[in-house]
Design brief:
- It is a single chain.
- The protein is globular.
- The relative contact order is 0.26.
- The chain has a five-stranded mixed beta barrel. Strands 4-5 form a two-stranded antiparallel ribbon.
- The chain is mainly beta and 114 residues long.
- The protein contains one helix and seven strands, in the order αβββββββ.
Length: 114
């Protein structure tokens, strides 16, 4: 795991674009983190997506309506395609990341953990 993190830090880059640009992003969900509190007390979720262009993060979960109107949530390892707005470019623990907001799910391929 440490070797993978070191590789990602060395290869990290920001997505090409400017703050405010709305882009189509495709990548694999690296992980989601959740906790109590958040908006209206519903808790918070941070989602990290590994793309060919760099690491993308945003506050929220990825979900769409599935069969019979059940919510389908993206999990670690799932491939997602979404449209989102670039909010900022930053760095955390030496790894460059692009923060986006207002993600709109185009497609989720459930290939990861359930």
């Amino acid at each position: 795991e440490a070797e993978e993190k070191a590789r990602r830090v060395d290869a990290s880059s920001h997505i090409t674009g400017e703050v405010g640009d709305r882009l189509v992003i495709k990548g694999v969900v690296l992980d989601t983190f959740s906790g109590p509190g958040g908006f209206r007390g519903n808790g918070w979720t941070l989602t990290k997506i590994d793309t060919d262009a760099g690491l993308v993060v945003f506050w929220g979960s990825l979900h769409i309506a599935g069969p019979d109107d059940f919510e389908v949530y993206a999990a670690k390892g799932d491939t997602v395609e979404l449209k989102a707005t670039i909010k900022e470019f930053s760095e955390r623990d030496g790894e460059k990341q692009t923060t986006v907001n207002r993600p709109h799910i185009i497609n989720i391929e459930l290939t990861g953990e359930e």
